[in-house]
Q: What sequence folds into this?
């Protein structure tokens, strides 16, 4: 339909315009009669004597103009919308009947679609916009074409799911102990769990011989979501450990690799693009107030004045001034400025920070800053954890020593503090040397002696003053970037361990590879920091077992060795 005109009620069209259209349409005919339209008892009345043609109809009527191919023949048609598909009959002198099937479409949607089509055409051709009648014609044509296209296109709801999403675990084939544990909400024993993994892998390999890690993850997530109490990774207080599926995923992938050992199946590896270091998830890992706003009624000028006041108090009273109530309040008020200076890029050196914030490096302020940063009282969490699970860890290793180093620690740690014994057992189990976190020195050594006599690495170290039997009465220090930055006032190994752990989060540091597993275990089991993503461990270099080439170490949310030990301890404590 090339043109359409909307007819309102009582629209008047002069007979002179009608006659001029009729002369253009036919030259041979003499005084042709105007077209007559009949629909549902409505008539078009023509009066040539009054030289005026009046067309009357109800609201929402419209006018259709028809054009022949050979000659321009236009007539105006006013019709009323019917319920289903109205039919309009046009009587002409040739007794030709034209039937139009019209579809009722809301005017607003027609105009919107027509405007968009008209604008696109006008911009491409450079022609001005069409008239409203042309817009309606374009809209009708576009809607019909869209209906035809939509009938040919497949429905978006018909999306095929992959086999891991529709995978059904064969629970009926599982051992009776597994089914009983699921019904009672208990954790199955390790032997039964391994048998379950074998059956699960056999069923998965019916769909694909070597499932990818993402496919295994989809299946395992469904299992964890359905039975979290029986198979999810949990802490001692039954809170989810990280994502909750790490240990089961490791077991399934190891079983698949063992079954496919020596086969020709290609290992699926995702390509990773190298990325440069920037402030991101590693720095904000476990923090709830990484960069807070200024306190109410405080400005940058007033906060800076408070910082200068703290420096003046330290110059007058030294580290002992930390006991003053004014220092505690000022350190809390200036917490936002402390984080701003620490989070600068490039990171400031530690001596610059000590000159700006001397009280920050005292034992009390280290604990306070960590609590403001993470909402966790690090010393209190460490003390409670040692009481709750310290003895369970030693009993677990006594009943099942994992290597010779663990046996040596158990035979020599009778007289040591519980915290030191636990740390030594953890580092021996993970194959980490104690010097990766703790260094020993003479009980009478000063900070200057430590810096000159010991080879201090850049990563944090806890310096323990005194021999093995003097640990409960000896002092401790913390070193960073080869300098002593803090000296403890409470002579216990546990207080020093809590302070050195807090340093990693205060100054946005990663766990050194020499003690990464032990520090992550302390983080997840003792402190209770269990983010679902990210890690504080450094992605170091390892030797590939297959090729012997040094490659980049994979990064995982939860270290596999840490996850396995946590699961074994949980099973041991539940038994």
A:
């Amino acid at each position: 339909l090339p043109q359409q005109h909307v007819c309102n009620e009582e629209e008047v069209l002069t007979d002179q315009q009608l006659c001029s259209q009729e002369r253009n349409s036919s030259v041979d005919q003499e005084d042709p009669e105007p077209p007559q339209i009949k629909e549902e008892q409505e008539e078009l009345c023509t009066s040539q004597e009054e030289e005026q043609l009046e067309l009357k109809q109800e609201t929402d009527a419209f006018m259709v103009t028809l054009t022949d191919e050979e000659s321009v023949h236009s007539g105006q048609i006013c019709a009323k919308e019917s319920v289903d598909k109205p039919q309009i009959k046009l009587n002409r002198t040739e007794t030709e009947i034209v039937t139009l099937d019209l579809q009722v479409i809301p005017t607003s949607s027609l105009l919107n679609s027509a405007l968009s089509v008209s604008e696109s055409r006008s911009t491409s051709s450079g022609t001005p916009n069409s008239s409203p009648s042309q817009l309606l014609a374009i809209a009708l044509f576009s809607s019909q074409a869209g209906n035809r296209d939509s009938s040919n296109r497949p429905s978006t709801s018909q999306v095929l799911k992959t086999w891991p999403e529709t995978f059904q675990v064969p629970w009926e084939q599982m051992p009776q102990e597994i089914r009983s544990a699921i019904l009672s909400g208990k954790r199955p024993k390790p032997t039964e769990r391994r048998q379950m993994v074998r059956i699960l892998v056999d069923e998965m390999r019916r769909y694909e011989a070597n499932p990818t890690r993402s496919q295994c993850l989809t299946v395992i997530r469904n299992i964890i979501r359905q039975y979290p109490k029986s198979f999810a990774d949990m802490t001692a207080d039954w809170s989810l450990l990280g994502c909750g599926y790490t240990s089961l995923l490791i077991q399934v992938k190891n079983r698949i690799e063992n079954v496919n050992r020596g086969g020709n199946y290609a290992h699926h590896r995702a390509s990773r693009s190298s990325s440069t270091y920037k402030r991101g998830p590693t720095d904000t890992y476990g923090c709830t107030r990484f960069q807070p706003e200024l306190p109410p009624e405080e400005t940058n000028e007033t906060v800076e004045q408070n910082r200068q006041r703290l420096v003046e108090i330290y110059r007058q009273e030294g580290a002992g001034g930390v006991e003053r109530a004014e220092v505690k309040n000022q350190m809390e008020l200036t917490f936002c400025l402390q984080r701003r200076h620490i989070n600068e890029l490039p990171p400031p050196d530690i001596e610059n920070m000590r000159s700006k914030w001397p009280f920050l490096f005292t034992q009390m302020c280290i604990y306070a800053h960590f609590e403001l940063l993470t909402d966790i009282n690090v010393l209190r969490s460490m003390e409670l954890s040692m009481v709750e699970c310290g003895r369970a860890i030693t009993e677990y290793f006594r009943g099942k020593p994992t290597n010779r180093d663990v046996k040596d620690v158990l035979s020599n740690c009778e007289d040591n503090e519980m915290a030191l014994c636990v740390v030594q057992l953890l580092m021996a189990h993970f194959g980490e040397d104690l010097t990766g976190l703790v260094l020993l020195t003479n009980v009478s050594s000063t900070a200057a002696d430590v810096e000159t006599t010991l080879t201090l690495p850049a990563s944090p170290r806890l310096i323990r003053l005194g021999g093995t039997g003097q640990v409960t009465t000896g002092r401790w220090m913390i070193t960073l970037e080869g300098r002593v930055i803090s000296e403890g006032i409470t002579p216990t190994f546990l207080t020093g361990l809590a302070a050195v752990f807090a340093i990693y989060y205060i100054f946005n540091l990663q766990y050194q590879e020499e003690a990464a597993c032990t520090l992550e275990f302390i983080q997840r089991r003792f402190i209770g920091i269990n983010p679902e993503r990210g890690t504080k461990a450094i992605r170091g270099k390892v030797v590939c077992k297959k090729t012997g080439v040094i490659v980049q170490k994979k990064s995982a949310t939860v270290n596999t060795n840490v996850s396995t030990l946590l699961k074994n301890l949980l099973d041991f404590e539940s038994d």
